[in-house]
Amino acid sequence: MKPFAYERAATVEDAIALAADGGVYLAGGTNLVDHLRLGVREADRLVDISRLPLAEVREREDGGLVIGAGVRNSDLAAHPLVRTRYPFVTQALVAGASGQLRNMATTGGNLLQRTRCVYFQDLTTPCNKREPGTGCSAVEGLGRHNALIGASDDCVAVHPSDLCVPLAALDAEVVVAGRSGERRIAFADLHRLPGDRPDLDTTLEPGELVLAVELPPLPMATRSRYRKVRERASYAFALVSVAAALDVEDGVVRDVRLALGGVSHKPHRALVAEAALRGEPATEVAYRSAIEAELEAARPGRDNAFKVPLVRNTVVDTLARLAEGSAA
Amino acid sequence: MTAHEVSVRLTVDGADRQLDLDPRVTVLDALRDELGVTSVKKGCDHGQCGACTVIAGGRRIVSCLALAASYDGAVVTTAAGLGTPDRLGPMQQAFADRDALQCGYCTPGQVCSAVAMLDEVRAGMPSHVSPDVAETRVELTDAEVRERMSGNLCRCGAYVNIVEAIQDVARAGATSEGGAA
Fold it and tell me: Does CATH number 1.10.1670 belong to domain A5-48?
């Protein structure tokens, strides 16, 4: 690990000032400390934001929630309003990492964690995300985890977060602050596709700090589900994952939210499938046809074609179970 | 104390310790290398194996990814703080009774993790295998224990007995031995 200076921020303004000229924010540290040690990332100065007053979950007047960026994953998962109003958020959180890591990792850090593409973390191999212009080892390498949708010639990595998948489905908003003040970012606009700049995961400006994630009210999310398919039963990143909420009345899909993890450089909101399903009969035939329309955008490579039927079957099964639950 | 060093105070197993550290030093390395607390073990040093698990502020963490500077003021409990060779803590005694180890390297982390995990269960925290995440009364099945302990690897494969040891303690009583937050 290269030497760095350490500063602890007392206020948000203090943090933003300390992060000017390349300071790096430290929250839970579960991803950053590992990357500093591996040499994936270097920093001259760490700005510790873990003691800022950003660790609260607050209810909005409209029934939505404001989640402070410093709320730990375990606390967010266990929050009474999250587990009852947005169960797929809790399910996504407890499907990720381990008990120890969830006690450390924060909401803001979860959004900004880097890909687990093995080549990104392996300094002996080229990687355009880690070192722009060096090439992508994953395109012709071990490609089982590669993206299906929205990849580029420069990068085929997927976003690793579980939490971000239901947040995409919920149309969450991200509140950030920087030297030019505060702004709100629609969740769909926070992460970006790789294009020719895979080194940039998000649209945040240098030095911007995530303050909060806001969840709008969504009554049908009380019947929501996060399904994660992985290579072992616990403590592994997703091959694919599905966040879904479904509102069925008289056998017809009144409304649906659907997002996919493990398929793209950003959490993938399945807008094509959602549009195809609204007003259709709540049947497995309709679910299947809708997700197949979404997956027309998939461009599988040599090793990851299995993800196409895996996504399809997981979506169909998840929606079918949600429909069963809402009929009961 | 050189220009880049930071002053860090930790309460380790009941004792106040004051240190001047390079900011790169983790809680794990501060405990082992600076304070000689070798009950905490270094396994992978990447947050993947759980051997370095300690209880900080009442919660289990992996100390290899925790920068000591960031934990200034923390109350840290290692396995050595959960009992002594003459007076083992309930979880340590259960591990011994159930033969829940072979080489023993992962055991201090397993024991710390298990103690704090039972506190999480008492607090009603859900897990990936909980049938209904809104339910705050957790029925601690073996599947729940396995899921909640999946952050602690045992390469000897003592898992079956580790589950038994933890269940013995869970059945025996509802009191915490992890220390207050």
Answer: no
